[in-house]
Specification:
Layout lengths: L2 H8 L2 H16 L33 H13 L17 H17 L21 H8 L1 H7 L3 E3 L10 E3 L40 E3 L5 E5 L5 E3 L14 E3 L4 E5 L12 E3 L4 E3 L14 E3 L6 E2 L13 E3 L4 E2 L15 E3 L6 E2 L13 E3 L4 E2 L15 E3 L6 E2 L13 E3 L4 E4 L13 E3 L4 E4 L13 E3 L4 E4 L13 E3 L4 E4 L13 E3 L4 E2 L15 E3 L6 E2 L13 E3 L4 E5 L12 E3 L4 E5 L12 E3 L4 E3 L14 E3 L21 E3 L21 E3 L6 E3 L12 E3 L4 E4 L14 E3 L4 E2 L15 E3 L6 E2 L13 E3 L4 E5 L4 H5 L10 E3 L17 H36 L5 E2 L10 H11 L8 E4 L3 E7 L5 E7 L10 H13 L8 E6 L4 E6 L4 E2 H6 L1 H6 L2 H21 L4 E2 L8 E3 L5 E3 L6 E2 L29 H17 L4 H7 L3 H10 L2 H4 L12 H14 L10 H9 ...
Parallel strand pairs: 4-6, 5-7, 6-8, 7-9, 8-10, 10-12, 11-13, 12-14, 14-16, 15-17, 16-18, 18-20, 19-21, 20-22, 21-23, 22-24, 23-25, 24-26, 25-27, 26-28, 27-29, 28-30, 30-32, 31-33, 32-34, 33-35, 34-36, 35-37, 36-38, 38-39, 39-40, 40-42, 41-43, 42-44, 43-45, 44-46, 46-48, 47-49, 49-50
Antiparallel strand pairs: 1-2, 2-5, 3-4, 51-55, 52-53, 53-54, 54-56, 55-56, 57-59, 58-61, 59-60
Helix pairs in contact: 4-6, 13-14, 13-19, 14-18
Length: about 1200
Amino acid sequence: MTVVNIVIFIGKVSRIQRHLTNRLARIGVSDASRGAAAVSQPASASAGEDPVSNKSLRTSQQKQLRIRHLQSQQKHLKPEATKNEASTITKSTKASKTSFISAYICLSLSHSSHHSHNTKHIQRSHDIQVPLVCLVILPLGIFLFGRSFCVYDCRSGGSSKLEIQPPKPNQTRSLLPSWTLVPNNVTNSSSHIKRRGPPCNWLGITCNMAGSITEINLTSRELRGTFYYFNFSSFSSLLSLDLSYNSFSGSIPNHIGNLSKLIHLDLSFNQFSGKIPLNIGLLTSLRILHLHVNQIYGSIPHEIGKLRSLNELYLNNNNLTGLIPTSLGNLSNLTFLYLYDNQLFGSIPIEIGNMINLITIDMSTNNLVGSIPSTIGNLTKLTYLRLFNNQLSGSIPLEVGNLNSLTELALNTNNLTGPIPVSLGNLSNLIILYFYDNQLSGSIPIEIGNLINLNLIEMSVNHLIGHIPPTIGNLTKLKYLALIGNQLSGSIHPAIGNLTNLIGLSLADNNFIGSLPQEICQGGSLTYLTVANNHFIGPIPKSLRNCKSLIRVRLDENQLTGNISNYFGVYPNLDYIDLSDNKFYGEISKNWGACQLLTSLKISGNKIIGRIPPELGNSTQLRVIDLSTNQITGEIPKELGRLTSLLILNLSNNKLTGGIALEMGLLYNLDHLDMSTNNLSGSIPEQLGNCLSLLYLSLSKNNFSGSIPFQIGNLANLQIILDLSQNSLTGEIPLKLGDLHNLEKLNISHNKLHGSIPSTFIKMISLTSIDISYNQLEGPLPNNTVFQDAPEEAFKNNKGFCASVRGLQPCMSNTKEGYKVVILIVLPVLGALFLLFGFIGIFCIVCRVAKNVEKEPNKTNCEKLFSIWSYDGKMVYEEIIEVTENFSNEHCIGVGGYGSVYIAKMSTGQVVAVKKLHSSQNGEMADLKTFISEIHALTEIRHRNIVKLYGFCSHVRHSFLVYEYLEMGSLAKILSKVEGAKQLDWMKRINIVKDITRALSYMHHDCSPLIVHRDISSNNILLDSEYQAHVSDFGTARFLKSDSSNWTSLAGTYGYLAPELAYTMNVTTKCDVYSFGVVALEVMIGTHPGELISSISSSSSSLSLIGHSILLKDVLDQRISLPTVHVIQEVVSIVKLAFACLHNNPQSRPTMQEVSLKLSAQMTQFTEPFQTITLGHLLNLSL
């Protein structure tokens, strides 16, 4: 638009303003004018329709199904623009004009309008519809032409309060094409805007016959902004307001109570925060109130009880706290009540029994306590009752049997006790029954056979006893039956064969006896069969051979018998099968190679004979093969090298012969290889050095010969164990083995190795156990912790070691008489040569130093290291070289992946830690990027719980960083020793965890840009003399940029890395949160919690079983006494927070700021005695 056009247009703005203001006043306030509805409104949801599908069959699907159906229930509210509403987008220059016009109209109507060049000052209109002008008019240019535009606040003239996002790039038509308005006297032919009529014709706006706005429906329009200045009082006739599925934020203003005629209010799926306004109670005509999936906090106001016309109340998926108000009992017309996924506490009010029209109650995933009120039996129209994942106690009330319309009853994951009520047999319409993860006792009532419509029964992890009643055979519609983790006994009644629709049968971890039912897969639909850890005997049912639907089978830990050579057919969908620890015999079937989707094959602990079939190499999806502890013979087939997805290969404790095929080097994803206790021979193939993912390697108790291939030193990830013991290996220990910096256990005992221990072993700082006994080794032992703390048995039966270790001679010079003559002859000659070379060397050094001083004064680029010192950088550099004796091993206190750490006692008396970066072969710094990253990070931050960087030096000879010296060393080192662990009482451990949270909270939330450490581990937490924790080692730290993605290479320590880093390199603060969770658990249990984390990351049923079978007191560090009453609450809270930080979904983890605040605040009071708290209890608690 040219300047002339702008001036012409400005002159017409006043008339446009009056036109719009008068028109909107007639539409929004008066009933004088007429208008037609722009879009027809769809029918509202049927009162009897529940938003959650009755096909939710698994615990892990409950939340997803609810959200999915809530979304689908509201799809009918989204207006669909017809083809006739589409407007043609003209050239970009015209689009710019329209955007300018729309913007200028709003600016002209602002509180403090401005003069512009030759225009008159436009006075503010006092019409109450002015704010709506901005809300309605401004999107014109934006939605029509894809322009991102920020709306100027029309009331205050302040900053933007509503930002309209542009359409997506691939969107070819406007989102609101009918929203256009042009002044009557604009006749410029260059304008492309077509007049579409007043707001009543605009998409999303509906008016009544009198022309007043009655409905606003802007669902799913990518809108965002706040309601701070939205004038609700201007819409006195408004009946429906639907702004769902947008990105509105801020609080819901109290003056929303001015919409006195409102019937339907839907603000769901936005980002609203703050509290529910008390004036919500003024909307007495309201029938539908949807505020779910926001960030609303505070308590549910008592005033909601005044909304006696309310039919639907959706407050789920927020951050609500406090009690459920008793006033809800006044809502006798309510049909749907959704309060799930909040933090509500207290008991369920007995007044809920007054809400006799309720169809659905969902209060799951809160912190509710107390018993289920018996008045719930009054709700005879109830079809869905979900109270799972709370802390409810007491017995299930008999009155539940009155709920004849009930189709889903979900009481799982609580603390319910007592028997299953017999009255449950009255619920003939019940489809889904969830009782798992409670403390229910007694037997399963025979009346359960009356529930002929049941699709799913889940009663796992309780204390149920007795038999499965034969009436279970009446449930011919049953698809899933899960009774895992009880104390059920007896044999399985043949009537279970009547369940021809059965998809899943889970009976593991009970005391069942007898044979498996022969007709267990009679219907041909069985998919999941889990009967592990019972006392079943006899053969595998014949019906399983042709059961093509099988996906997951667990028959392990029973006493099943029979020849399995021909028991199993080809299963096109099979993913997992475990036949371990039974009494099977026969050979491994070739059919397993034809199961193309098989990922896990476990047949360990049986009496299997014969060879491993080469056809197994055709099942290329295999990730786990465990054939250990059998009597398998023959050679390992080279075809296994095709299984490039293999993670675990365990062939130990068999009678295998021959060598290891070279093709094993192709298994680049393998992390666990165990071929121990066989009759394997030949040399260890160097190709194993290509298996770079290996964490565990055991070839012990075989007949391997030859030397240890130096390529084993390439396995940088090798951590758990390297066991080559009890073979016939010869030669020297390769120097390259010292590169295994992450290795924890090394056993090369009972071989024929000779020579000395390589000096590179001093770099193996992660070693906690070593055994080099029964070899022909000699010489000095490396001066590091593992050799100093190892028992005497770890070195015995060698040629002779010397070291300052108990049971060994110190390393001293021998002065035997036989060498005296040789010494007398050789010593003078050597002395003369030494003097000669000494003079030459001194001369060269002096010349070089002089040359460096003259020509290269800037080669030593040292910062002044200590402000309290008067030395310059060069003097400090020289003194560090001197006091560390040119970085002698005697001053080395630790070795890491990027450098070695030395203690330096300066002339001032100050003691510092010097981290010298490793050099490459050409003498240059091996990792300049790490060096710079650490300097960059530590010069930007100052915190008492982050190690202090005094200075750094980048020199052609040495590059190092100088830190404060922390006397106690690393947390990992202290926890690894009994004496050190005993010094860490519970109060010290609590404070250590708090120190770490403060440091990470500072880095993540107080630094700009924020810093992600990426390698939080117990090795990188250092303690001072007061046991205060300091986060160290910032070599992998990254500054996160808010305006771009943060992709980077993998860094960190195995066992502490967040699981999402397995499939994405996008680093976030939540990666540090996960690592913190590991460290926090490690502090509490005294060792790395790898096995515990693996168990809680498994399937939901296993999680429930394992979590509720392990007491917290049994997991805590047993080397110190149990926590006293003064610290119990803090210990429990830390463990609970640690579990929250270990959530597989990064978005579900708390932030470090939240963790720090929770640990600083008053701890949650747990009503359950400490002696009875289980891990499962803590896993289910909300933060």
